[in-house]
Fold these 3 entries.
Entry 1:
Amino acid sequence: MRRFFHNLAELLEMIKVGHSVLALPFAFMGAVLAARGLPAGRTLFFILVAMVGARSAAMAFNRLADARIDAANPRTAGRALPAGKISPRATIWFIGVSAVLFMGAASQLNRICFALSPVALLVILGYSLTKRFTVGSHLVLGLSLGLAPVGGWLAVRGDLGLPVLVLAGAVLFWVAGFDVLYSLQDEEFDRRAGLFSLPARVGPVWARRLAALCHLAAALGFAVTGRLAGLGPIYAGAVAVSAMILLVQHLLLSVREPHSLPPAFFSLNGLVGFALGLATWISLAV
């Protein structure tokens, strides 16, 4: 029993379960926009379960797919799989259970969510393989998280609307920009390993410029979402705060080497989703 809980703790640490804050607020934001207020508690519960299952499966698959790459990279060699703290077999079981949890939760929402759940799994798991052959891998990761608000909206309404599609696009560019900045840490290794991260292919200067363009597109997308949904000044203020947070990220990297990003880098990104999601709920409640 002690070993079971030890393995579970290692698995949760491996998938960085605390980083779920990046996608979860946008799933709830999509649901709140669709309901024009707070959805039913049952719906919110199964959205939460689905998000936890999807993200757990995606992160564990990423670690499994990248185990050999991580072992060769000094920055990631200490991760659970390359360090031998968790076995590949246990990771595969964890991926399977997480995927079943996701699809089971989707089945409790509505038929369309359940029918599309395999497609969502294909996208979020497939991302882990894309950096082996395309610089578009950053956009695929963005698409993976951009599905969160779409899923939240579908859980409530079972259809699609322009506000959530614009929001999904904004999330796509927000995550892509963040991922480009994150990959600056591994520029030299990725180049030697033949991986297709943007910094390795176009260099750090152009990678930062493209990340800035992604974040500009994201900020505009967040603003347009508010306009389409009629969210008002509270939400507009949250968009302004989020834009400042994105700017601070770029300023942080302009004054320090990106070989090891500070924890504040991740905390700032989590605040973007939290601020926008909270402002959306408050705007509709008021």
Entry 2:
Amino acid sequence: MAIESTAESPQPLRVVVDATKGWVERLGSIWVAAQLIELNRRAGHRQYLTLRDPNEEVSVSVSTTATVLDAAGPIVEGSTVAALLKPTVWRSNSRLVYECLDIRLTGEGKLLATLEQRKRKLQAEGLFDPELKKRLPFLPKKIGLITGAKSAAERDVLQNVRLRWPGAVFAVRNTLVQGTEAVAQIVAALAELDADPDVEVIVIARGGGSLEDLLPFSDETLIRAAFAAQTPIVSAIGHEIDNPILDLVADLRASTPTDAAKRIVPDVAELARQHQEARQRVRGALLRLVERQRRWLADVRSRPVMRNPAAVIKVHAERLAELRNRARLEITHRQRLEAEWLSNRLSRLRTLSPQATLHRGYAVLVKGKASVTSVKQVAVGDELTAVVKDGGIALSVRSDDGEG
């Protein structure tokens, strides 16, 4: 009911605010369809986001809790959601706020959340481990291809492979590539090709499409079948921006069917070009090596020793003769010095020798074997020998004139 008031009898502001708050909160909580256009995750309990009407330029700021957001799963900006909102008015400043009590993904957003949960589950089991990826053969004997019948993906793979390697052999299995029966057909074709010993690589290809169209290639049954296959698998689904779960379990992910063709066989024309370039590089390297050796040989031949080999011998012979002369002179000089030293020592020795005294006319008296140096050593009648320079003279003592 309307609140009566006049200029002379106005209502207090709190009355109007309380009335507004009551009218707004009478709406209660209500589910709304909207698009999440902004999400600001903050540390703490309260979280804030912005919702927009799917068809009109109408948006509201919403407050919620971290618990509500976490319960919604992997929610991101751009997701289509159903939100349980409760509008209210804060009495302190009369601000209109929307409290989000629950939020759930809908439409494509819900589908993306389901795929994300499946992806995390399979990843936790190790199905995407890079170490388990199998290497593709350089030139497969036979190529298995699973794709839609007469599809652009089939044409792109076949044409581009044969342009690169005309002798390529295919085993094509046409299946549904969307819809409820697609997974069963693709899994059956995969098992058949995997059992063929001649098939050395299997390509699963499909052109672009909506998220719903590509759902079979994220089906858990197909993912586990691809993981269990013994033959290397190439996933070529959609365009570059499409990322079905098959891309993660496949041994090689190609961005498009055309890219898959480029990845599974070598380009014969490119190989021929590379071969020719390699031959030219080898030939050029050999010619450069021969030229370097030719220049080295010419340099060696131009050296003086090669022009007159005897010149080196002559130089060494002259050096040897010079060394021999120097050695001979050194020996002669050393002999002369040693002879002079020996002569000097001999002269000194002769000067100190008793023989030199005898040569001067002196004699040495010897009694028996001892020399006589005093008269006290002899007596009358003793027989002595007088030793002179050229012999001895026998003497007899007749008298003793010495004292005592």
Entry 3:
Amino acid sequence: MKKTWVYLSLFVFALSMTACNSNDPKKIKLESEDDKTFYAMGYMLGGNLQRLSLSDKELSALYKGVAQASKNEKSEVDMATYQNRIQEVFKARMDKVAVKEKEAGVAFLEKFVKDEGATKTASGLAYKVIKEGTGATPTAEDVVEVHYHGTLADGTVFDSSVERGKPISFPLNRVIKGWTEGVQLMKEGGKTKFVIPADLAYGEAGAPPKIPGGATLVFEVELFKVTKAADAAKAQAAPAPTAAPKAKKK
């Protein structure tokens, strides 16, 4: 629960920059660069509270607590009691969201298999070949160079090397299980769409703020190159080339 406390404390800090000056954050105008910076901080950190599914009344209670604490006013509740309650609420809310996400993910994956003729493996991974490759097939220990586009089941993009315009290379056994299994089904030059259930991705914890707990992930992966583990190790061990000698001045 340490991360929970970090997220909450940072979020409360960001809220304190606005709550003291207005009862309605929607009325705050972002005029200076500092205003925009703190807004960006609050927006980023606030994303970690999405998993709590807070109601407007609960958000108002949160604002009230921030405002009173920042003004050194007396708490309206016994803090010793509710400090323990905070962790209980966080866990219960996150577990509830994770269960809901997983249920929606199961339905999404089954629809993908049924409607798009995708294949489902024994582990629960589903995939559909978009373009068949003709080159080498990687093992889990190999280094792969890929382009990928990752979304949640609702289409929200959380990460994409395609959008960044730069392929990425990594050892295949150092990523989520769904990737390790799935990319081994590909060949160089191929492109495949994967639907990865939470158990093969980031589990019930998720990867906040972009990936909620229990989330099913969708990836389109294009495999450019496979470097065998032994060759990758040799390349890393090889000494860096020396700079070319400069011509002597006459």
